[in-house]
Design goal:
homodimer, alpha/beta, Nucleotidyltransferase, domain 5, five-stranded mixed sheet, globular
Chain lengths: 291, 291
């Protein structure tokens, strides 16, 4: 069975492991902090590749940032990683084929092949973590757009410039539906600038009325965003993954969304491809696994 | 050259004409009021088809409502047309092939083949009329979704249940970016329940300060919606067509959108396929014209 060295490059951590063409992780998962300098990121990647490239058929990279339509490099800037990172020559890491794709697109592909959206031609995946990532599958293909940057979940939830988004614009879905969004919503509603998203989850577990209200507002913001996506894409399902997804009531979201959309009924599901879905999806894509 | 009998079935009017495979209208355009009863709609269509089917190769229908992925019929309800209309047996109208597609998708296809988005693989078309229609082209194909209903421009502009939308949900893009949206925005801002969208356009032409402010709010709502669509689709261009599009400053929108998106630069353009782009697009699709 063919295998890929899968590497997940994020703003804070770099993971790597070996994944087979069934999407199974067949090695330990290694984890490092993402170095601050581009030179150190590069040498970290070189060391990982050197250690494992002889054991695999292909190198599969899931990365933060938008990846071009040739799956060879990054386009534009990527926020919280060394500013020269977009110049990275990924193919230069190995004499074997190096395949690169955006981490959320990889996670969406993992869900599509082995996870919650398996068997569905049309799905939207949202990773609810510190931020919000998006990966959209149309007709069994990842939506990339003209240059590879599609699937960014920066559509507005209001138009009165209320909350600044990490993208420097205002009031994007990410600014409300993310873990940071939950924190900010709680701070606003409870007028307490020290609250964290953990405090809110803890409060929900303790049946704290005010914190539960903040949580519900957050969940309803996710619902309102999904309504728009369901009307735009008419997807078979919307998959929620990422660290914050476990707290969401997908039955509630499914019912509410279906009661408000003008397209045909859809399903809101929790991701099933696990915490390493980015690496799994990158490997499946790099190995050419389409179903 | 092959020709199609093209029919545009809307909630208020039914148009028909003959279109060739270059997208040229080669007959007079006939116009009728849409009958109230389903029986009368059906007999109107039967009469049109009987009159022209011998002169053409195929029947091409652009219709209100979502059309299935087989391009044979309507799925679900369609708002302001006889409630039995979704049961229409379109193929039953003729022994020749009857091809059916949603009117906004048809208009998007006309722009894609002979209009503003010609030569671009990825585009989003918005028809700004009484309501807002949407047609999305991805990789030179119309985005249909799992059952054909994709491209509905019902994503939220705010989440505080401020303005009811025609879809019965709240605060959709359509409720702000449409002609009716302009009217409602002006009525709200000027606290005058008698204003029409014509009054606003007239006021802009007279440099009326308050009405111009209402117009600019409307234009900025369109801008904010486009920002989301550009981040989701990374399109080559966004095409604005429909009766309200002529009033919009597309250079302003292009600059503002590009200053706020996280994807790659795009263009906001006015449609060029004309008032009958629905029929032209239906004909091109029915005749299999892909480029």
């Amino acid at each position: 069975m063919k295998k890929a060295l899968a590497i997940d490059i994020g703003g804070t951590k770099i993971y790597n492991c070996i994944v087979d063409e069934k999407g199974q992780i067949v090695s330990d998962v290694e984890k490092r902090n993402t170095p601050e300098s581009f030179a150190d990121i590069k040498s970290t990647l070189e060391n990982i590749v050197k250690s494992y490239e002889n054991d695999v058929d292909v190198i599969a990279i899931a990365t933060c940032g938008a990846v071009n339509n040739e799956n060879s490099g990054i386009i534009g800037s990527t926020g919280n990683i060394a500013k020269e990172y977009p110049t990275m020559d990924f193919q230069g890491l190995s004499s074997k084929k190096v395949f690169v794709e955006n981490d959320a697109n990889c996670a969406a592909w993992a869900e599509h092949i082995i996870g919650a959206s398996k068997g569905y031609a049309h799905s939207v995946m949202l990773t609810l973590g510190t931020g919000v990532g998006g990966g959209i599958i149309i007709d069994n293909k990842i939506l990339k757009g003209k240059s590879g940057a599609a699937g960014e979940m920066h559509f507005k939830m209001r138009t009165d410039k209320h909350r600044k988004c990490t993208c420097k614009s205002w009031d994007c879905f990410e600014a409300y539906a993310s873990g940071n969004g939950l924190k900010d919503t709680a701070r606003e509603l409870l007028k307490n600038p020290d609250l964290t998203s953990y405090d809110v989850i803890d409060g929900v577990n303790r049946n704290d009325r005010e914190l539960t209200r903040a949580f519900q507002r957050w969940e309803d913001d996710i619902k309102d965003g999904i309504i728009g996506l369901a009307n735009i894409f008419d997807p078979d399902c919307i998959v929620l993954s990422g660290s914050m997804a476990e707290f969401v009531d997908t039955d509630y979201l499914t019912d509410e969304v279906n009661s408000q959309i003008v397209t045909t009924p859809t399903k809101v599901l929790k991701g099933q491809a696990g915490n390493y879905s980015g690496m799994i999806g990158a490997a499946l894509l790099a190995l050419g696994i389409n179903s």
